Amino acid sequence: MAIQWYPGHMHKARKEIEKVMPQVDLVIEVLDARIPYSSENPMVASLRGDKPCIKLLNKSDLADPEVTARWIEYLEQEQGVKASAITTLQASMVKKIPDLCRKLVPQRDKDDKDIRTMIMGIPNVGKSTIINTLAGRVIAKTGNEPAVTKTQQRINLRNGIVLSDTPGILWPKVDNEKSSYRLAVTGAIKDTAMDYADVAYFAAEYFLEAYPEYICERYKIDSMPREPIELLEEIGKRRGALRGGGRIDLHKASELLLHEFRSGKIGQLTLETPEMAAAEKVEVAKMLEEKEAEQQRKLEERKKKHSGKRH
C-alpha cells in the first residue's frame, strides 16, 4: 500500500514554506508519539536546513511511555534537535513551548526581537490544538479529519514569539510501505483512502507481536491467536460484529480494532521503535537506489534504440 495523498493545497504549501523559510529562526515539527518516524516529514529537514528545531511528540498520552523516552533520546542524539513529549490534553505542557524556543534562539531574545517560528506537521497530528493553546484563543480550526488547515497564517503570541502556521503536509509519496500503513492505522490518512481490513490486518499483526498482553486484556481472549486474521475474527465474535448466518463481519471488526487503538482504549501503544526506524531507513534507501538504477538502465536502453545501436 504505497500511499500518494497529495492534494493541490499541499504542493502550494511547500512552495510557500520555501519562500518564508529564510525569515524563520526556529522550526517546530509536531510528530505523533505513536509513530515518530512515520509521522516525520522528510521534506522538513531539507526545507529547514541548519535552523534549530524542536520536535514535539504529541499524543504521548496514547503512546508507550518507555518507547517515547527512547525516541526522545534517539532524535536528540541522531538529529541534533530538541525533542519533547507532550499531550494537548495538558495545557501546561504546551505552554512550556515558548521557553524552549527562547533557549534555542537566545540571541533574538537578548536583542529584544520576536523569535520567528514555523510550526509544521502532517495532518491530524494536533498542530491546530497546540496553536490555539499557545495563543489562548481559537485561531486554527481543529477536527479529527485530516487536512483541516488549508492556508498559512502568522500569529503573534505577544510573548516575544511569532508563529507561522502551515497546512498539514504529507509528502508526495510515502516510500516506506510500512509507514503508509502506520499513518493509516493512526488516522493521519483519510479513512476513505484505504482498505479498513487491510490496515487492521497490519495493526493486528504488530499488536500480536509487540503488545499481546494488552490485546488479551482488552478483548478478554484466553489463548492468543497466532494469525492476524484469527485475532480480527476473535474480536468480531466477542463484540458481536456478525453478519447473517453468524459469519464474522471483518470490516466491522477492523473498524473496532482501529478505533479502539486510536482512542487509547487498548492501552498506550507505540507502532514503531527507533531500532525499527533505523532498519527501515536502510531498506528504503536500498529500494530507492535499485529503482533509480533500473530507471537508468531503461533510459540507456532507449537511448541505444534511438541511436540505432542494437546489441
Range of strand content: 5-15%
Largest β sheet strand count, sense and barrel closure: 6 strands, mixed
What is the CATH top level name of the largest domain?
Answer: Alpha Beta
**How many domains in all?**
3
List unreliable stretches of 5+ residues: 1-6, 144-150
Mean pLDDT across all residues, rounded?
86
Helical proportion? 40-55%
Structural class assignment: alpha/beta
- State the CATH superfamily name of the largest domain: P-loop containing nucleotide triphosphate hydrolases
Number of helices: 13
> What would you call the shape?
globular
Any key phrases for this structure?
311 residues; alpha/beta; Rossmann fold; Conserved Hypothetical Protein Ylqf, Chain: A, domain 2; 3 domains; six-stranded mixed beta sheet; 13 helices; disordered N terminus
